[in-house]
Write a structure and sequence with these properties.
The chain has an eight-stranded parallel β-sheet. The protein contains nine helices and eight strands. The longest helix is centred in the last third of the chain and has 21 residues. The radius of gyration is 17 Å and the shape is globular. Helix content is 38%, strand content 18%.
Length: 224
């Protein structure tokens, strides 16, 4: 018999259109909760603290994909580069260069997403639309052979104004379409659009997201 967590996870999965990947945001939740989700078929988990992800990785099956979804400090990159499946929130050129350096050291090419700052909130990280466009089109990435930019990530403003949330997601989707056509048309791996969380993932999917990061709707409120 399935647990309440597993029932929530199954219902959430059923609500997502085909082709939309679910990242279960497991930060601050105990390994027991992750195992429940794993037993219900979930394999992709999102963490935002390096030490917590390291500890959980040691206690979970080896086929779990670990996505780092938080603000990543350059001095922590070396710890996750050997195994991370996707770094969602690359928010500076400096961070890109550090990922390149550490990935080269361990002989990996690390998949990443560029974080866009589309929200009307100064506390959010990320590139502006113009900065991201320049970075993706100016040839910088050619000098980073161990970094594989696979798409874009963003967070919308925390607001009840659905029109504003849609505008912000739509801006990210428009940039994705622009740079895909201009530079990545022949790159099948440039295909990820990571936006949408528990409170707005339905809007995000309607506005072009194919990867949603959902925690509370699966695991409940966090235990700090």
């Amino acid at each position: 018999m399935s647990t309440p967590l597993q029932q929530r996870l199954t219902a959430l999965r059923a609500s997502l259109p085909e082709g939309v990947e679910l990242v279960a945001v497991s930060k601050f939740h105990p390994v027991e909760a992750l195992r429940e989700a794993y037993d219900a078929g979930q394999r992709v988990f999102g963490e935002s603290h390096v030490q917590e992800m390291q500890e959980k990785r040691g206690q979970m099956p080896s086929d779990v994909e670990w996505h780092f979804i938080g603000h990543l400090q350059t001095n922590k990159v070396k710890y996750i580069v050997p195994y991370v499946s996707l770094i969602h929130a690359v928010d500076s050129v400096r961070l890109l260069h550090e990922i390149e350096k550490q990935a080269a050291r361990c002989g990996r090419t690390v998949p990443c997403l560029l974080e866009l700052h589309v929200a009307d909130e100064a506390t959010k990280y990320g590139f502006t639309i113009d900065e991201a466009r320049s970075l993706l089109l100016d040839g910088t990435l050619a000098g980073l052979p161990h970094v594989k930019v696979r798409g874009l990530m963003c967070m919308a403003t925390q607001t009840d104004n659905e029109a504003q949330i849609r505008r912000e997601f739509a801006a990210a989707y428009a940039l994705y379409g622009e740079v895909k056509a201009a530079r990545f048309a022949d790159d099948a791996d440039f295909n990820l659009r990571s936006w949408g969380m528990s409170h707005d993932y339905r809007l995000a999917v309607e506005e072009g997201s194919n990867m949603v990061r959902v925690g509370t709707s699966i695991f409940g409120e966090r235990t700090y």
